[in-house]
From TrEMBL:
This is Translation initiation factor IF-3. It comes from Gehongia tenuis. Monomer. Keywords: Cytoplasm, Initiation factor, Protein biosynthesis. PROSITE patterns: IF3. GO terms for biological process: ribosome disassembly. One of its GO terms (cellular component) is cytosol. The gene is infC.
């Protein structure tokens, strides 16, 4: 939603303001009361759009219509944006062939949906001393999904885990 709150009409306390009419033409520096009266005659609101300027800049507009238009634009922008989430696939250094196939199938589904996939191997006990086995499992996993995935981050050991991040290939 709109998070900018403008001062309108009687909320404007400055003695003089620079006034712009609804067509964008400058009317010059006027006393605030006179600017408010002109806006009322045109059935518009006087909105302070640049409070930091000296004197502050105010524009005559239909504020209700303006807020509606901004809310509509905001909603459209949210509708168009793509939220990328990261899905995780956990493997082990001693994973079986069928289990790898199931994990590959899930990862491919996530990648086709446009999500990133974080592939993790958790080393237990003394497995950490044989991290090259985990690296081989990761390389094999990537070979199976490389037609739909790009390797965004190479397999890297972090504590007792090895992590690789895959992103969907652009089509």
């Amino acid at each position: 939603m709109i998070n900018i709150d403008y001062m309108i009409n009687d909320e404007i306390r400055e003695p003089q303001v620079r006034v712009i009419d609804q067509n964008g033409e400058q009317l010059g520096i006027l006393p605030t009361r006179q600017a408010l009266q002109m806006a009322e005659e045109r059935e518009l609101d006087l909105v302070k759009i640049a409070p930091q300027a000296k004197p502050p800049v105010c524009k005559m507009m239909d504020y209700g219509k303006y807020r509606f238009e901004m809310a509509k634009k905001d909603k459209e922008a949210r509708k168009r944006q793509k939220v990328i989430s990261i899905k995780e696939v956990r493997l082990s250094a001693t994973i079986g062939e069928h289990d790898v196939e199931v994990k590959v199938k899930n990862a491919v589904k996530f990648l086709k949906d446009g999500d990133k996939v974080k592939v993790t191997i958790r080393f237990r006990g003394r497995q950490i001393s044989h991290s090259q086995i985990g690296l081989e499992v990761m390389k094999d996993f990537f070979e199976r999904v490389k037609d739909v995935a790009n390797m965004e981050r190479q397999p890297k050991v972090e504590g007792r885990s090895m992590v690789m991040i895959l992103s969907p290939k652009e089509t």
